[in-house]
Amino acid sequence: xxxxxxxxxxxxxxxxxxxxxxxxxxxxxxxxxxxxxxxxxxxxxxxxxxxxxxxxxxxxxxxxxxxxxxxxxxx
Amino acid sequence: xxxxxxxxxxxxxxxxxxxxxxxxxxxxxxxxxxxxxxxxxxxxxxxxxxxxxxxxxxxxxxxxxxxxxxxxxxxxxxxxxxxxxxxxxxxxxxxxxxxxxxxxxxxxxxxxxxxxxxxxxxxxxxxxxxxxxxxxxxxxxxxxxxxxxxxxxxxxxxxxxxxxxxxxxxxxxxxxxxxxxxxxxxxxxxxxxxxxxxxxxxxxxxxxxxxxxxxxxxxxxxxxxxxxxxxxxxxxxxxxxxxxxxxxxxxxxxxxxxxxxxxxxxxxxxxxxxxxxxxxxxxxxxxxxxxxxxxxxxxxxxxxxxxxxxxxxxxxxxxxxxxxxxxxxxxxxxxxxxxxxxxxxxxxxxxxxxxxxxxxxxxxxxxxxxxxxxxxxxxxxxxxxxxxxxxxxxxxxxxxxxxxxxxxxxxxxxxxxxxxxxxxxxxxxxxxxxxxxxxxxxxxxxxxxxxxxxxxxxxxxxxxxxxxxxxxxxxxxxxxxxxxxxxxxxxxxxxxxxxxxxxxxxxxxx
Lengths: 75, 510
Fold this sequence. Notes:
The complex is a heterodimer of chains A (75) and B (510). By secondary structure, chain A is mainly α. Chain A has one domain (4-67). Chain A is 73% helix and 0% strand. Chain A has four helices and no strands. Chain A has helices at residues 4-17, 21-44, 48-52, 56-67. In chain A, 16% of the residues are buried. The model of chain A has no long low-confidence stretch (mean pLDDT 83). By secondary structure, chain B is mainly alpha-helical. Chain B has one domain. Chain B has helices at 6-47, 50-70, 73-84, 86-120, 127-143, 146-156, 175-179, 182-213, 217-252, 254-260, 300-306, 316-321, 331-353, 357-370, 389-419, 428-452, 465-468, 474-505; strands spanning 161-164, 169-172, 267-268, 272-278, 291-297, 312-313, 457-459, 463-464. In chain B, strand 7 (457-459) and strand 8 (463-464) form a beta hairpin. The longest helix of chain B has 42 residues, at 6-47. Chain B is globular, with a radius of gyration of 25 Å. The N and C termini of chain B lie far apart (55 Å). The model of chain B has no long low-confidence stretch (mean pLDDT 92). Classes of the chains: A mainly alpha (75), B mainly alpha (510). The interface between A and B is large, with 43 and 57 residues.
């Protein structure tokens, strides 16, 4: 008699094997995640504060600097 | 960062808006269709009729397609927070980072278990457990929208947190005040129930198409009955939660309410604009009429805004220039207090740097006294506090008109389907097909009201969008904007193609 882990494994394996539309959908999901994390996140969306400052203190100091600038009046 | 290039702010806004709008194409359908699948399956389990099983499996497949294409599109918003909105992200990251991460992990395990049972478990687990899994997916999917909507509500009505000038971060003071703020409750209930309506329209639209083609007639009729009942109940609920949202706007964001009603001069017994065309030349404080034409329901705005007939509803001019009689402080006065808060924050920062604790403590005391109006200190003119009135007005009124139309449509579909003459209603069926797109329009307009209407604020009264943004090169934001536009368009084409193919195959192909 199969153990619980084997049953779960078999359940998922058979499920994936029996997929029809799901195969295409999984391909889209994988391609999408690769584009998002390996391209967009890596090259275009670095975390600005983590990339440009080493410590939390420096990050806080930078944000406070931004918050401490007065408004430029429009004339 | 108030001397930031405004085109940068606008491109960052546009990019975030586009990503959020794209994300919202999929989310409401997931929220609503998950419940409809659970209802179809409940009928199957109760009746034992295999036709209901086929119906359930068909809609579940379409649910799966929508889910797969839409999944993780929200993560792009998080990328944008870190890159384009780093100041905002830093300030609230401690508060919302953890719940959103927990929510993500919860959603992952929910999906990995109950989703798997829902899609792989037919004939492999008991009927009861399968039904339980489907309901869990529905409940879990809706709950996974909770924290992002709570975070959005907090931006509109910041309660339960305090700003720490040492760390430049908001810190939680009262978790329950954040979670159960009236704005958060109305935001969550209104957004999720609008998803119920959209999903019902989706089912009605596809079923109408089948009826027009004379295919899968029985399935279409059965689906219409369930979807129309669910959609009708959802529409009524949306109306109630929408009314609550407008009431909260009146209490906490009166400028937003004034903008989406095109109300410049506040009045007692204010009327609700049922229909109107905005005079785009109208500016705050001038004497021009705000409308080229308008049809008003007398007194209704006062009743809806304050739950009190005849009460005073402030207009844009009252809020910008103040109204002593109504004890409304103008933006110019708030700006002066806000400017003091900004100066005291700068003094505090400098004193801390110089390790002068006495001066720092004095600056902090002054800052604390004025911090309620901090955001106004960054505005350049009082008129900057006014959101784009035309966009807010038309978005709101298109949403309301469509929101009034949908329950009528559901009643018509329910009536003719129960009467047995739905196939003869050749005027109604094309309208049913079109209704799904109208549902999307209503949903997107709803978000436009919420987000355009709260401009210029990222955090209401505390942080304008121009301070929240990161000072990046405009070209960088423009490049990623068009990159997203391309990726999103491709994904949308993929979804439409897969979805239409599956619809064309029909329930036999499931």
